[in-house]
Amino acid sequence: MKIRDAIKAASNGVYISIEVTPNSKQSCVYGYNEWRKSIAVRVKAPPKGGKANAEIVELFSKIFRKKVEIVKGHTSSQKVIFVHSASPQEVESLLVKSLEK
């Protein structure tokens, strides 16, 4: 699995490409889409009124224990999130751990 391909380093944090499936039974990081080079994520919330986006931010904030924001794709299932003050290695290892659950 090449999770590293979904992660891009920046000077003050890390960008992560994600693919979101709303209206799921549980909220979790569940895989890696090799074709799109993105992390597959499920959220319980519907994609209405920013509810799914809020749940994405909450989910990743818990995983990384850092400030997280959506920087691209607010109305799309393909999104880019930014994790503040994180290193690519730290993000990759925490994503791998969350996939193992």
Automatic annotation (TrEMBL):
Family listed: Belongs to the UPF0235 family.
Organism: Archaeoglobus veneficus (strain DSM 11195 / SNP6)
Record Pfam families: DUF167
Protein name listed in UniProt: UPF0235 protein Arcve_1935
Gene3D superfamilies named in the record: YggU-like
Lineage: Archaea, Methanobacteriati, Methanobacteriota, Archaeoglobi, Archaeoglobales
Gene Ontology terms: cellular component: cytoplasm
Family annotation (SUPFAM superfamilies): YggU-like (SSF69786)
SMART domains given in the database record: DUF167 (SM01152)
